[in-house]
Design brief:
By secondary structure, this protein is α/β, with parallel strands linked by helices. The chain has eleven helices and twelve strands. The chain folds into three domains: 2-85, Arc Repressor Mutant, subunit A; 91-160 and 267-295, D-Maltodextrin-Binding Protein, domain 2 (3-Layer(aba) Sandwich), CATH 3.40.190.10; 164-264, Periplasmic binding protein-like II (D-Maltodextrin-Binding Protein, domain 2, 3-Layer(aba) Sandwich). Helix content is 46%, strand content 26%. The longest helix is centred in the first third of the chain and has 27 residues, at 59-85. It starts with a helix and ends with a helix. The mean pLDDT is 90.
Length: 296
């Protein structure tokens, strides 16, 4: 099939090496050489110069490479359109999620999505909010799921549900038995926080600033689990998403505080490029996000 030959040719050119191309395509090196030789015979010209160290493309090869990339792109688009006719969802889906969503919400959404659309190749990256946004902006991610607000205007941002942030303390903390606290009771405390760039850290900093709190000392952890373990161990107090602490509150490993006249809410949002086409795989994933919102 000509598409297979084009794929071999493009891979050889991009890798500049027959052996690496064979490894990537999972075929033998002689098979790679045969594809290239047949192409050169069909076109009556040399496409590449071979040497022990690398492959160099000829002027004719440059022309073919440009058109081969278009052939492969059009073939993939045709496959997607044909699959749409058959109501089959295929392709690749690259999802990035900030830690709270990635660890506590995305697995539930993904389990249902993968069960319904098993032919979609899903790739997941969990990182902090700023890194997820940058992944969408650089086209390394199709969809990003982030916590909190962002001022980025070069990407599409849409909230899909609201999250409640809770002040939590160790079970043996002096405030742990109080049902309702005043803001001044949080003065001169030791705080456990996430790293800069995290959506949770942004809201903790905003919360402390709005209440004019003085911090006695702070410790920084790069995961929600690390923050929770530090609170459980009695190292300090923290501000965390309700999603991350329900189990620990039920087992009394940590205690949640209710602050008088103060509720801390933040949006969970999805972000995507303003310019990229929305494949059926992306549309169905966003539909699963909406179904999750309605059920929670």
């Amino acid at each position: 099939m000509i598409v297979d030959t084009m794929k071999v040719f493009v891979t050889v050119i991009e890798q500049k090496n027959f052996t690496r191309a064979a490894e990537i395509l999972n075929i033998s090196q002689p098979n790679v050489s045969l594809h290239i030789r047949n192409l050169e015979n069909d076109l009556g010209t040399k496409l590449v110069h071979r040497s022990p160290k690398q492959v160099r493309i000829t002027e004719a090869g440059e022309i073919l490479y440009k058109h081969a990339k278009q052939i492969l792109l059009h073939f993939e688009e045709a496959k997607h359109e044909i699959n749409d006719l058959r109501h089959v969802v295929t392709g690749k889906l690259r999802v990035g999620a900030s830690f709270t969503i990635g660890e506590y919400i995305l697995p539930k959404v993904l389990a249902e999505y993968a069960g319904q659309f098993p032919l979609v190749d899903v790739q997941i990256i969990i990182s902090n909010t700023e890194e997820v946004i940058e992944g969408v902006r650089s086209n390394q991610l199709d969809i990003g799921l982030i916590e909190g607000e962002t001022n980025c205007h070069d990407i599409h941002i849409q909230s899909f549900m609201e999250d409640e942030m809770i002040v939590v303390v160790p079970s043996n903390h002096t405030l742990s038995q109080m049902r309702l606290i005043e803001k001044d009771m949080l003065q001169n405390q030791i705080w456990i926080s996430r790293e800069v760039g995290s959506g949770t850290r942004t809201y903790m900093d905003k919360f402390i600033s709005e209440l004019g709190l003085i911090i006695k000392r702070s410790f920084v952890f790069s995961s929600n689990q690390g923050v929770k373990e530090a609170v459980k161990a009695g190292l300090g107090i923290a501000l965390l998403s309700r999603w991350t602490i329900d189990r620990e509150i039920e087992t009394n490993e940590i205690r949640a505080l209710t602050l008088k006249n103060k509720k801390i809410k933040r949006p969970f949002s999805f972000v995507k490029s303003k310019n990229s086409d929305e494949s059926k795989a992306i549309k169905m994933f966003l539909q699963k996000i909406e179904e999750f919102r309605m059920n929670n």
